[in-house]
Amino acid sequence: MTAVIASDGGDQAAGPLVELNINAEERVFLYRLLAGIFRREQSKERLEELRSSQYREALEEAGVDLGDHFFLTPIEELAEELAVEFARLFLLSPDGRIAPYESVQLPDGSGQLRGPESQAVLDYFKATGFAYQDEMNDMPDHVAVELEYMAHLVLLESCSWVNGKYDEALNAIRYQNDFFQKHLFNWVFCFLNRVNAKAECAFYSVFAELAQEFLEDELTELPEKEKQAEQLLERN
Amino acid sequence: MLNRRKFIKLSAATAAASVAMNGTLSQARELPVFGGKDFSPTTGKERKAVPSACLNCVTRCPNIVYVEDGRIVKIEGQPKSIRSEGKMCAKGQGGVNQSNDPDRILYPMKRVGKRGEGKWKRVSWDDALDEVAGRLKTLRDAGTPEKFMFHYGRMKSSTSKLVKTNFLGAYGTKTIGNHTSICEGGKWTAQELTWGKHYDTWDFDNTRYVLNFGANPLEAGTNHIPTSHRLIRALTTREVKMVTIDVRLSNTAAKSQEWLPVRPGGDLAVALAMCNVVMSEDLHKGRGEEFLKFCKVTDTAEDTLENKVKALKDNFAQYTPEWATQHSDVSASAIRRIAREFATTYPACLISYRGAVAHYNGNDTERAIQTLAAITGNIDNPGGRCLAVGPKWKYPKAKGMPKGRKLKIVDGPKGAAAIPSHHMSHNVLKMIKDGSAGRPDIYMSYMYTAVYANGDVQENIDVLKDESLIPFSVNINPFYDESAALADLILPEPPYTERWDWDDMVSPVQIPEYYIRQPAIPPMGETRDFGTVACQLAERIGIELPFKTKEEFVRMSCAKTPAVKAVGGFEYMKKHGVYHDPKAKPKYHSYRKELKAKDYEKATVILDEATGTYWDWKKAKHKSAEAAQKKGYTHSKGAYKAYVGQRIGDKVYKGFKPDKLNKSGYFEIYSGLMKEKGYNPLPTWYSIPEHEKMSDNDMILTTFKVATQIHSRSQNCKYLTELYHDNPAWINPVDAQRRGIMEGDEIKVKSEVGEITIKARVTPAVIPGVIAISHHCGHWQYGRYASGNKAPMAHDDDPDLKRMWWKGNHGAHPNWIIPNAPDPINGQLRFMDTVVQVIKI
What we know:
The complex is a heterodimer. By secondary structure, chain A is mainly alpha-helical. Chain A has one domain (14-235): Orthogonal Bundle (TorD-like). Helix content of chain A is 71%, strand content 1%. In chain A, helix 1 runs antiparallel to helix 8, helix 8 (143-162) packs antiparallel against helix 9 (166-198) and helix 9 packs antiparallel against helix 10. The longest helix of chain A is centred in the C-terminal third of the chain and has 34 residues, at 202-235. Chain A is globular, with a radius of gyration of 19 Å. Among the domains of chain B are: 38-99, Single Sheet (N-terminal domain of TfIIb), CATH 2.20.25; 200-284 and 316-387, Dimethylsulfoxide Reductase, domain 2 (3-Layer(aba) Sandwich); 590-676, no CATH class; 690-840, Barwin-like endoglucanases (Beta Barrel), CATH 2.40.40.20. Chain B is α/β, with parallel strands linked by helices. In chain B, the strands form 8 sheets. A 7-stranded mixed β-sheet of chain B has the order 7-6-19-18-17-8-9, covered by helices on one side. Chain B has a 6-stranded mixed barrel with strand order 28-32-29-31-30-33. Strand 1 of chain A pairs antiparallel with strand 1 (25-27) of chain B.
């Protein structure tokens, strides 16, 4: 179904629609940002961007305080320090790394790297028309890939709102909700808690908290969004 | 949503920067429409998704059937169903094999050799229908329609209304046997005696405690998946405590916090003792006490609370926990502790099933369980044991129905059961053999393999084979099962994946759900929906029905049912499969509804002083109010159909509306009907006579069901039978050692009616003195996957036939050694009482 929003404001859906769309656009970038944080070590270039005045202001407004150390430490030193921390947290650690995979972190799951949960996530991607190709040959149930997948779905939603395809927007929201409930929700909070507890650098604990807050919000908002979108579709 | 505003700038900054993750995922094709879509893993081609409904078991969950190139390839749960919430059990998913079974019967077949010899010829539908209709017409024209017996099993919803209400009603036979007494008919009778209707819903979503007497909801049950997934959710996410009382460590017992092993039939002693604890410790005070207002506890229509409490205390005083230990082997301390926990945790849900009720004393076991729920205030409340709520379909009915006639063969021998309100199907063949109440000339069976599913298999075979006892036998069946093999004519029906129905199973959320079954593919071969066949028979006999096919019946029902019609009727149901009113509120405490004066002050409504029941004398077919008063509500045949309300104090309530029995509108802990039949009106201990006379060497046989098979109609499903095809007998190490039996040994299990050979599973998961054998296995027909035997006219196009690694290993069937003995009150087949001897071969 395709709906066109009347330019004279006569469309009752316009108000909520605008809100849903703006909301979707924001969420795309937040998912992408978080995926980028947990995917790999931060390059100097990426760190420079994160330290830019524009970003610093945005982070502060979002309540994210990375501390003076992050902004004042020479960039090469900071990159090295965070790379070591990344490795300690997620790659190799004498006291056990926090493997960022659903198959390992899922409470009561297989606990195995490349466990059946990895395949289930890959199957989900395939079933919804996505191809997975990773230069690092990593697992599809990596937290960053699952967050990236959510970003894709939210982007599809956002584009559908813009194009007036309410049914497609609702469809994309349903998949977001479904994937969130079947996968991310079941393990990501446990994972983020562990990151927060183990992180020695504020960088990772702060982003773990940000992710936690954002995803908790998603948990309550996604079903609401689905309802709102259904109502919009019914009205149009 | 607005609390996200603080993220706006951050996301905007991210949009402008390259800090976001580089992509590992790329979109290869459009996002498919959410839900109800599936694709071939080999070709990527989209499969056709048909919203329909399962019928592998009685739960009848809404499902989605997927079709690829005209073949049913997968079945999944229906995500829109409020009952199943999209969940589907192995049995439901295994239903995919029903359509593709290479041993399916695709054409009408007529016996050419001796009955049971296995020689058949194909006949046309015209010939088959002409023969059946001709014989039916002859009986009807002779004024003996009752000589046509129809014996059915899993015939539900629209099929039942079309075949039973319309076709059989218009034909005029009431010689109609069902199969409920081999399921849980005894439980239903006990419920009809207490709260009127049969069927209890367990509100696991809202409960805080589950006490289980012999139910196995995680593996089987009449509302399996809708309740089991909710129970798992309650146990895991809310840490609700469950206690299971069972002779066997079922998977439900294993998932409970406590398993209390009990002696067979000892459930009644435990339930009575728990009532004792509640009453003697005054734990009924509060909600239990409040509920007693709606209970009949003495022989007085309206008694005081004080008298009611005294009557309960007096009745249960003798059943102390220490007394119960002697009859159940459950410790007195456990009984006391669990009774206290149950009574002081509100809401608490009391559940029960065949493990507790398929005994000689099953009727009062269920009555005692009902009483325990009542005196703790856990009846029809959120989180408790609730009256079932299902959809109310309207459907077309034939006009001018004749007064039906019947042979008195469906309730068992005279005096065998006092109140067989769900009949005694396991004694129908015995009654035919006996002949004193007459015999049918035509015996037609449908979705009921009486020969396999009843006890005393050899007797069933002997009767069904004997042409002098049953001159003409017709079986309607998609498969060549044990009943089909003993028929004279087989009318082939498509399995449920190729049929039409509306359906109406009860809802665990107390909100009705309407749903339909529709063919995912056209019926294969020449198979015909039996509903349509009934219409065709009617036409040949000269009976006018207001529809010509089952599809038309379903379509008309959709148009007649207001809730369904309002959303688009048949077309809506075809598209969506299920419907419930999104604004509907769960239905609890319906008995508390006060009636308006206009409801009971009608000219035809009178008060029965003896019971406090308002009833409509005209509906009860009395000639006048005076005649009705004289006969009284309780003794007027079928008066329950004329029930209006129950007077309690100065008000009239909807109360607990009766169904099948003339009880009052009270929740009858005290049953006047039981008293009239010579039984104690209050729940009472009865020991099992055979168990009293056991020698040291004897054991008790109990039976059970597993999660991957239906009682008797799923063993042709290769996926399920690959999982479960062998059923070794569970025997406790103490009993095994005593008999020199080791794991895997062949043993002989012998009863008064026969013996079987079976393998032993030595396990402490069954109590000493009891041997446990599951149902499902030991078929000698039902096609190659079930029994290894090929059906006549079967085909060999299934490559899995060559991969059938369990060939020759099909388990043993316990019913060969279970007598068709009934509960003396309700007629239920006593599946769990048989005394046996067990020896190593």
